[in-house]
Amino acid sequence: MNKESESKTTFLDNYFGITENKSTMRTEILAGLTTFITIAYILILNPQILADPYMIMGDAVMAGKIANGVFIGTCIGAFIGTILCAIYAKVPFAQAPGMGLNAFFAYTVVLGMGYTYGQALVIVFLSGVFFIVITAVGLREAIIRSIPDAVKTAITPGIGLFITIIGLKNSGLVVGNSATLVSMVDFAQWRNPDVDLTPMMGALVALIGLIIMGVLHAKKVKGSILIGIVASTIIGIPLGVTHLSNFSLDIGTKFSDFAEVSFMKMDFSGLFQGGNVMNTIFTVTMLVISFSLVNMFDSIGTLLGAAKQSGMIDENGEVIRMKQALMSDAISTATGAMVGTSTVTTVVESSAGIAEGGRTGMTSFVTALLFLGAIIFAPIVGIVPGAATAPALIFVGILMLSNVKDVDFSDMTNALPAFCTIVFMPFTYSIANGVALGLITFCLMKICSKKFEEVKVLTLVISIVFVIRYIFMTLG
Questions:
Q1: What Pfam families does UniProt report for this protein, alphabetically (predicted)?
Q2: Which residues have CB under 8 Å from 443's CB, separation 6+?
């Protein structure tokens, strides 16, 4: 038995290069588990968002079917994308339906433009096929190489702030304010007997979790982020933040609805039926480009930022196994549409597992298996509240923001684009916007300063495409 176990360990070690990357099996497993727990909220939130247009339109039955179908589709789509990262690309990245892109799918394409759920899936599928083609011919790699160092060095700290604001929002520590846009939660609410204290308690749990993670990390305890998430979940029970009551394993209905409305239900004929065919083709093309631009630069930004954080940059400054990682991303976008979910992309929460020491495909292999297992153990996944995973995002934000020291602030033609890259990510809630504004301002600064030789042709072309996108394409 011991020999058999040893043999398996040796095979996995050799296949993923665990020892070669100065990691251990235990570290990789913990990292994979951490990534999954940090991103698990998507399994709950994505079905809600994609079903919401039908709920708003008053079709509660269809909304329920779509929510059930999308749950299964989200688990399968995330599994396919992440297992590709593990076995094909051998990188510690997870893939899942992207937040923001799913909102665009639901509220702009379905609710705003009147397309059905099945027709919107066609648009996502076409953007995935487009990605596969441009990745196969090396265009996506060329685009990454065209990103100037001023923007590249700013991507990691920018993502750090971006996931920090996601964590602050999910925890309830930061709330909306009509006068100042955002403000901190009111911790004096306990004095008002008529106010629901759950949001305040959630913010308190998140703060406690953040301190736990910080102390454990300072003491060099392995698994500090994962321990912090588990501890926060437990602390949240007596505070009314963690709920243990929902243990209904109604998997049969979910699979039935998945087969009925989600699996291979792309409505090609309905998309191009009726009306002016040329107008339809133009609109669909614009939507495909919109999905593609946001997805491409979200994934490129995440890939560059996380790769730098994990040391997966070669001597030429390029991401190791970049083409394989990009192809995994492209395939998962197309297959995600086939199983009924919005755009599957490389998720920024992968950084949580990388911060735990994940360095190889073994990390994503563990995460992928957990995505598949989540189909059965969904209620257990749902027990972990956002207040427990939020401090993990904030804590990883600290680690990633430390890379701001690499940004060149001595030359304003580099400093301004870097600054725009960093601040537009959190303040517009989009990695793609940060990269886009960084590239646009880089070209403008260099051209206006007559440093033409520093602007690559492809960089300029991409910047112009983004300008056109902002002028003509509404992203909701």
A1: Xan_ur_permease
A2: 455, 459, 460, 463
